[in-house]
């Protein structure tokens, strides 16, 4: 092709600028992350690693403040590296397409340049004329117009701004009164889980001496509860008939046997299931 050397020259020129812009973007991301880490005392994340706190105290090569700054710088480098790798993996291959870039920015080359490149192996009167027209158009364009000079300048200014803030924060030991350890302390601790047996025992303890039931009297449901801990309606005495029965059924091996309390009042027969339930619980 007649115009191929011109395309190679333009591609080399533009790739140099776009490569420099890519480096500036990476540097901008690094300084931004580094600044955030300094402002929010992100070095404390490193001390969550086992042995890091001990190493920080035992090392004598650098003072603790500078050691923390190095930890944050290393963290920013690692995060930036992974961000660049992910960006490269997600980005489509051949993103820098010189043909599309030239056709998009120079109307005289639209469709012509792509057609000429597609027919670069066909040599006839028609294609030769197309090749010459494309060559004239390529020679007459100002390639600097599509160089990312403004993007480079803007990214460089932002990079300098972040760098200046980093220098100020490090020199003045400036950071916000926020740190990962403070956030961790503000998070409420979740209650420790209890085993099924503990929950069951806890429930039994709460109602160990209380009996709840519902009886029907005169067609109405009535909730009833007796709490023996109040000592109402119960005595510590055992009637003679009950004592004889207990003495007859006991043997010598049951020492320290405690008699259940006896109820001394007469209650309506509706209370019978309630009282029976109470003594069953008390004897269990």
The rough form would be described as elongated
Please give the number of β-strands.
Answer: 4
The helix/strand series, from N terminus to C terminus, equals HHHHHHHHHEEEHEH
Mean pLDDT: 77
Helix tally equals: 11
Radius of gyration: 44 Å
Task: Present the secondary structure layout.
Blueprint: H1 4-39, H2 52-58, H3 64-90, H4 98-105, H5 112-118, H6 125-140, H7 149-172, H8 180-186, H9 196-206, E1 211-217, E2 220-226, E3 234-235, H10 240-249, E4 262-263, H11 272-283
Antiparallel strand pairs: 1-2, 3-4
Helix pairs in contact: 1-3, 1-7
Describe the structure.
Residues 242-253 have a biased composition (Polar residues). Residues 242-266 are annotated as: Disordered. Keywords: Membrane, Transmembrane, Transmembrane helix. Helix 1 (4-39) runs parallel beside helix 7. This protein has helices spanning 4-39, 52-58, 64-90, 98-105, 112-118, 125-140, 149-172, 180-186, 196-206, 240-249, 272-283, and strands spanning 211-217, 220-226, 234-235, 262-263. The protein folds into two domains: 4-186, no CATH class; 196-283, no CATH class. It has 284 residues and is mainly α. Residues 199-211, 229-238 and 250-257 have low confidence and may be disordered. It is elongated and about 125 Å long.
